[in-house]
Amino acid sequence: MPEKHSNFRIFYKSDSFLFAEKPAGIPVHATKDSKRENFSDLLQNQLALPFLRTVNRLDLDTSGLVFFCTDPEKNKEADQILKTSTKIYLCIAVGIVSEDRFTENCYLKDGNKRVKKVFSGGDKAVTEFITLKRNPKENYSVLLAKLHTGRRHQIRFHLSEKGYPIVGDPVYGMSDKLSLGGKKIPQSKRSLLHALGVSFQEKEGEEEQILCPPPADFKKFLDEVWIDPSIFSKFSIK
């Protein structure tokens, strides 16, 4: 069972690294608003750590696992762990996804509040998806997404581009277009994207597999969906 520190759960902790669960609605880092709380500072204060570096980031609305380095001498090793780790997300998407599994591959370029697909000058973005459940009556699908690159808004863009935006996504949701077709639009107060699992290996250590159960706002979408460590072996691309 994970440790609990105030409102935050710690799912893995070693001498140099830790994985903690970020709730939706709180930024990972400090923002321009100096009075706004952020996950990194709160976690550092709660654990009384002299040093805490955020190795990856999640969008404001995204919940789940965030990777931290607690030793300034291990920053390069932390970056290598992030690069070679397996990162899996849970998504609730609008619409009925036809494929059981598919891979999206394009080049993305950052804009102001969103990314866009480009044919030159962008960064390669690759995401592999597996469909776990379809609910035609409520017009949604449950998917796993494995990141093969780490671009901003990558999963959100890929699903929206394919016609299945994440439920509650205010940027890529295209809810107005979808509602014109007369189909039901599942509702959520935030984007239903969750950093579910990470598989990684510390230097000269055994492989670690961490699962962070989805929060309560996912539960009504997950009937008959079983989340366990087998998710790490479902994906074919290495």
Automatic annotation (TrEMBL):
Keyword Membrane: no
Pfam families to which the protein is assigned, alphabetical: PseudoU_synth_2
Family annotation (CDD domains): PseudoU_synth_RluA_like
Alphabetical UniProt keywords: Isomerase
Source organism superkingdom: Bacteria
Residue ranges annotated for the Pseudouridine synthase RsuA/RluA-like domain, each copy included: 17-160
Protein name, entry field: RNA pseudouridine synthase
Annotated Gene3D superfamilies: Pseudouridine synthase
GO biological process, one term: enzyme-directed rRNA pseudouridine synthesis
Record family assignment: Belongs to the pseudouridine synthase RluA family.
Organism: Leptospira tipperaryensis
GO molecular function: catalytic activity, acting on RNA; pseudouridine synthase activity; RNA binding
